[in-house]
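Per reviewer request, we include the raw input and output of the structure prediction for the construct analysed in the revised manuscript.
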Amino acid sequence: MKIVVDTHTHTVASGHAYSTITENALAAQSKGLQILCNTDHAPQMPGSPHIWHFSNQRVIPRFLNGVGIIRGVEVNTLNTQGEIDYHDDNGDYVDWFLASFHEPVFKPATEAEHTEALLNVIKSGRVDALGHLGNPNFKFDIETVLACAKEHNVAIEVNNSSLTGMSRVGSIPNCDEIVRVGKELGVYFTTGSDAHFWSEIGELEHAQALLEEYQVDEEKIITSSTSRFLNFLLLRGKRPIVEFAELY
């Protein structure tokens, strides 16, 4: 299996990342990626850009250095009602919504509250994937949430950064269980480097190894081909991206 899409990356616009979209695209090209998702942090995250940053991604060429650019955002799950920090009227300008818990925005609470928040953000229909769920500060009912994600065609991210032991320490056993359960349930998986510097773009070896360990069907790994990823967006109700016609 080869991973050709990185669905979780940050630029200097996120406030605590250090590379430009051009530098990230160059790195993606060198790693053999075919699609790069730009997912800077949404406005409630300290240091993040104004909402206009996301709607104005339409000025970024669809291809940079031969790599397809997906206009995305990493939104924050704000509360147990599943609200996110992104306005509906700007949604047409964004291709990919990744929703995550972040401690500065959602104070860690109980397992029941985390589970409720995840179920509601899935059911809202507003997000395409759930990010770095292995974080031990946000324990949740894995089987219940993943079953809901399967029902609503929301992808589950395997976050490479969480598997390195450097970010969200304590995530590795949780990520292992998430992939095990997700394989049994038949959820869609996505892979993200969570890069905050260009050299981390496309670093997905730990995520890939975990998916291979549990023999997850390649058809369920939406980043294993451009066609799988782009057709997943269609499944989510997105409009075709005409510039990517040859990648479907």
